[in-house]
Design a protein that fits this description.
The chain is an all-alpha fold and 141 residues long. It has one domain. It is rod-shaped and about 115 Å long. The chain starts with 18 loop residues before the first helix and ends with a helix. 0% of the residues are buried. The model has no long low-confidence stretch (mean pLDDT 77).
């Protein structure tokens, strides 16, 4: 047997029903004002929850981007360190070649030939652009 409901009795809320269902049964102006305020608060809560979720997603994406950048930089550091080691080895090898050549002693002829070549290069770099040969010869003299 069902009990008849009077105008002042409120139905008992079911599981999962919101506060709104009890507020909707009230009909005085003060109750309508409360209903509007509660709806605004609920809307504000929903928007805040959505904003928090968006923030967490963006934060996670930023962290992933930073981790990727850090990994890329670490990889680049390793490559550059390997290149530095390779160049240091090459430098030592070349210095060793020069040292060997200097220890054997250069011949007098090769030394003068090298000196003449260097002087020729220096002299040719002294000549100005757009000057005539007489002015260049005067500089050389």
């Amino acid at each position: 047997m069902a009990q008849p409901q009077t105008a002042f009795s409120h139905p008992s809320p079911q599981v999962g029903e919101k506060r709104k269902s009890t507020v909707a049964a009230m009909s005085s102006p003060a109750d309508l004002e409360d209903e509007g305020r509660m709806a605004a608060e609920e809307d504000k809560r929903r928007r805040n929850t959505a904003a928090s979720a968006r923030f967490r997603v963006k934060k996670k994406q930023r962290e992933q981007a930073l981790e990727k950048t850090a990994k890329d930089m670490s990889d680049k550091v390793q490559l550059l360190e390997a290149r530095v080691n390779q160049l240091e080895m090459e430098n030592k090898w070349l210095k060793g070649l020069i040292t060997e050549k200097n220890l054997k002693g250069p011949t007098a002829d090769s030394e003068t030939t090298e000196t003449k070549k260097a002087e020729t290069i220096i002299d040719s770099s002294k000549k100005g652009v757009g000057t005539d040969n007489k002015a260049d010869q005067a500089v050389e003299a």
